Amino acid sequence: MAGLYAALSTTVFDVDPQKHAHIDTWASMLSIYAFRALITDYIIEIKNPSGPNGELNFEKLKNAQPAVLNTLQTINTQLAERDFLITEQFSLADAIILPILGYHMQLPGDLNLLAEFPNLVKYYQRLSALPFCKGVLHTAKPLN
């Protein structure tokens, strides 16, 4: 973690109290609601299928999709005219959502819902190439 702060040469929080509060709000939303929709209810089913004989439970995935799509749309809209999620620099909110998006980037075929959200894909590709993100994000092999 110290290497991350050194690489940024700033903090993941903003010095402006209003921006700091905005980052904190988004960080809370992402770590609770986005994590639940994107990881707990979707990725975990793909990584650890709960269907008969260890197969994917497609009903569970179908039920999770509205929340997944709504969450991805909210973030995609937020990124429409900005390079980072909240401020003009990398923040705690970016640090929370990047690894979550990383799991989704690795999903095969119809399970990968990111094609509908071009801002998210560009954002992930751009930020995952930053020096302080390389080696932290898992980009090598698809989930199955």
From TrEMBL:
Gene3D superfamilies reported for this sequence: 1.20.1050.10
One Pfam entry name: GST_C
InterPro entries: Glutathione-S-Trfase_C-like, Glutathione-S-Trfase_C_sf, GST_C
PROSITE patterns: GST_CTER (PS50405)
Domain named GST C-terminal: residues: 16-144
Annotated TM spans: none
Superkingdom per UniProt: Bacteria
Name of the protein in question: GST C-terminal domain-containing protein
Organism per entry: Pseudoalteromonas aurantia
Lineage, top ranks: Bacteria, Pseudomonadati, Pseudomonadota, Gammaproteobacteria, Alteromonadales
